[in-house]
Design goal:
13 strands; single chain; alpha/beta; globular; 9 helices; five-stranded antiparallel β-sheet; eight-stranded mixed β-sheet
Length: 250
């Protein structure tokens, strides 16, 4: 791996947020802040690649003085360094209506993200008047989750992942963090082989698999650890800082 990285210098670090950059108190540790600052001073781009919407991650990006792109809502929205919208990918409102009915059928909690707000266990009066970016199901019952997953897969129109072991996240087919990063790399004039991606959940799988160097957190789901080239410490143990110091600031 050392030889590989010598030949393919890391020029961009893509960081998931929840369970990765953020600890369990949803804070960025000082160790992570310092490592990110030093990486940026070295000329490395640092990109938040998150399931969160812009309004739920912008504060953290600003607090880190990030000067690059943001991949948000699992790639449904891409923002440039001036917070200008580069690309937006929507879920059809008819599909949102169907998924809402699915939550009632299986009696599970849900959330959804539109272009102007986040919805949790409630929906607007007119679903079809909104622009939808993502829908999520949440259930601790594995059998129920598996049943919902099969129904979602049967429609063949969704990109399915998760951000915790107890949820299912739904984006438009083909929309994921890796695709978002490919677009960012094209605009920055670098290649995916020069990207180090760090994450913990299924919605991080594509970027971990397609980046030149994919890193799983110590608290990551097993499928993510198995796909990664290296496993760092947990999100409560400054795992992001450890990865940056070992592979970028070495």
């Amino acid at each position: 791996m050392e030889n590989y990285l010598n030949d393919n210098e890391i020029k961009l670090i893509a960081l998931d947020m929840d369970g990765t950059l953020l600890n369990d108190q949803h804070e960025i540790s000082e160790a992570n802040r310092l490592a990110i600052k030093e990486a940026q001073e070295k000329g490395v781009y640092v990109v938040l690649s998150t399931g969160r919407s812009l309004r739920k991650c912008e504060y953290h990006a600003d607090s880190l003085s990030l000067t690059s792109y943001l991949v948000t809502v699992n790639g449904s929205e891409i923002w440039d360094d001036k917070r200008g919208l580069v690309e937006r990918n929507l879920v059809k409102s008819e599909s949102i209506q169907w998924m809402l009915e699915l939550t009632h059928k299986h009696q599970v909690r849900y959330w959804a993200i539109t272009t102007n707000r986040n919805w949790i266990d409630e929906m607007p009066d007119d679903i079809h008047a909104e622009e939808w970016l993502k829908f999520g199901f949440n259930s601790k019952d594995e059998t129920t989750r598996d049943t919902i997953l099969k129904e979602l897969q049967s429609r063949d129109e969704f990109e399915l992942s998760n951000s915790t072991p107890t949820n299912i996240e739904v984006n438009p087919a083909g929309i994921n963090k890796a695709r978002g990063l490919v677009l960012v790399c094209e605009r920055l004039g670098i290649e995916m082989k020069n990207v180090m991606a760090v994450g913990d959940s299924r919605n991080d799988l594509t970027m971990i698999e397609e980046a030149g160097f994919g890193i799983a957190m110590g608290n990551a789901q097993e499928i993510v650890k198995n796909a990664a080239a290296w496993v760092t410490s947990t999100n409560n143990e400054d795992g992001v800082a450890e990865a940056i110091r070992k592979w970028v600031l070495k």
